Amino acid sequence: MKAYTYIEKGKFALLEKPKPTIIEPTDAIVRVTMSSICTSDLHIKHGSVPRAVPGITVGHEMVGVVEEVGSGVNNVKPGDRVTVNVETFCGECFFCKNGYVNNCTDPNGGWALGCRIDGGQTEYVRVPLANQGLNRIPDSVTDEQALLVGDVLATGFWAARITEITEEDTILIIGAGPTGICTLLCAMLKQPKRIIVCEKSEERRRFVQMHYPEVLLTTPEECKEFVLKHSEYGGADRVLEVAGADDTFRLAWECARPNAIVTVVALYDQPQVLPLPDMYGKNLTFKTGGVDGCDCEEVLRLIEQGRIDTTPLITHHFSLSEIEEAYRIFENKLDGVIKVAIV
Ligand SMILES: [Zn+2]
Ligand SMILES: [Zn+2]
């Protein structure tokens, strides 16, 4: 089978590899029907994920059909259509039991697929701890509707959940990339009074305006003033920082009203400054990122009910043999791309 492989820093290539087989009784083999490219794949390509192992197949966003299961797998069976979770987790340790699956203490836990072990930009993938890592896709939900469930949409759902959004709130979301928009969709479920999205790219602001006309839009330059003008108590009640750019962390806490919750989902290239003297008396609560992707079943139900729809985000389709081109478009943000589907 063909597998898009991390060769070395700066180089991925489509190689021929043997089809994976069951190793542990808790494994499943999934035939990948659709996968996507995530910014984290680019981080691997650029050598900024030290634990990524050269030679692995990349890709950790995928859906498919269960081909084969080990003797310990009872959650799914061959023939089931499934989403694959970006996180591998045991479901039994202290952290898993409390819903903090990102901190699973199992040696195989955490982000393994497409990083430490072979991932999904290929034809078949071995999914370890499949009872936790696979969720059945409801019959009325298409592969494309479910494509983002295991990663970016899980992140958006989790971010919206931990931010404790109420119907009284003015919320500010910084960043309207794929994760930012998924966060927006999940925040909308909480029906806050007002949603402001701050995004530097005009193309992405247009995208948000076109698909979610009720959202107020601003730019990083005008954000502080804009939020002040559109909030009652000197800033946003809830801020979700999903951009991870140079100044967006500062922007996040500066735009928050006193006693606000600031959720930081963004992954930064550089350490950020938390200038406590400047924010003294502002009494902010910070919550910081690393998705706990344990709500996939609920997310799939919401998709089935038509309450979350990420299909507008999938702006481009390519076949696996065209994956180089898909990366070129995604990496350079060409042609209005938000997410690509590899079919
Ligand atoms: Zn990802
Ligand atoms: Zn665990």
How far apart are the first and last residues' alpha carbons, in Å? 14 Å
CATH topology of the largest domain: Quinone Oxidoreductase, Chain A, domain 1
Quick one: CATH superfamily of the largest domain? Answer: Medium-chain alcohol dehydrogenases, catalytic domain
**In total, how many domains does the architecture comprise?**
2
What is the top-level CATH class of the largest domain?
A: Alpha Beta
Helical amount: 10-25%
Mean pLDDT: 96
Principal-axes shape call: globular
Roughly how many Å is the radius of gyration? 20 Å
| Major β-sheet profile | 7 strands, mixed
Q: Got a strand count?
A: 17
Secondary-structure element order, N to C: EEEHEEEHEEHEHHEHEHEHEHEEHEHE
* Estimated share of beta-strand residues: 25-35%
CATH architecture of the largest domain: Alpha-Beta Complex
Which ions, cofactors or small ligands are bound in this entry? Answer: zinc ion
Number of helices: 11
> Uncertain spans, ≥5 residues at pLDDT below 50?
none
Helix and strand composition category? alpha/beta
